Amino acid sequence: MEIGKPISILIKFTNSGKTPAEGVEILQSLEKVKSGTAPSRTYVGKDFERRSIGSINVGNTVETEVIGHEWTLDELMTISTDRTFQIFAHGIIRYRSKYIANETDEQPFCYEFDPASGQMVICRAPANNEIKPIADADRAWITVSYVHLVSPLVVGALPEVRVEFVNCGRTPAFEVETGGRVFSKSSDLPLLKGYNMEGEPKGKTVLGPGIPATIFMVSSARFQNQSQIDVIVAGTHTLYASGFITYKDSVGIHRRTDFCFQTGGASLKVIDETGYVMVNAKAGNTAT
Q: Which end of the chain is more exposed for a tag (fewer CB within 10 A), N or C?
């Protein structure tokens, strides 16, 4: 949002069904309300812009643009700084199925401006002002996608591990924090939910849907001699990278993903441009 310029919010809709949608229309509104007050979502009267779309074929996507007025400095401050007001882009999309007689449907939508991230997020307060969890399919969902041992196994080196993760959900993850450690052990871990990780969590950020991120974890103990490396290569000891990712979803529910990956066997023989690929120590990987 910029002073002297109108806000413009682009919303995309996709027909993910199996038949064309006909008679598609969208009622939409950009509404500024006092913080703690829900927007009007009755969708009657003249307070909503009505757009006729026509037909949307299977798999096709259409866009609608919700445009507001030009912002003054004082108005911008009430939204982004002192937060006495909130901005909502909301409405409803109505349609009927081409091949199903008398089949009509409508889908409400509501997004609000989040000053902390500067993004539009799914509304935290529904029409009845109650805070409810959103569906799992729609919430933020962080998963670990790839783990690499990027430092060489040499005497005097601190083992370093690169952990790649992604928000594979449909909404942003807020207050993302990570923590963990790299260590070796002579037997399998009985892992690790609720495990007290060493080291301070790193960072606190926003991770949008589909956005990848990377953390590096370094062992606190160096390889002191070659025998410590030989037992890992032989598989009698295992090098673990274990950690957690915590975050909030768009309605403020705390979420956590625990992960644990290990060397062992073939994993020390598989190498790509980022290093040795570590394998999943499955007992320790959970997401809530």
A: C
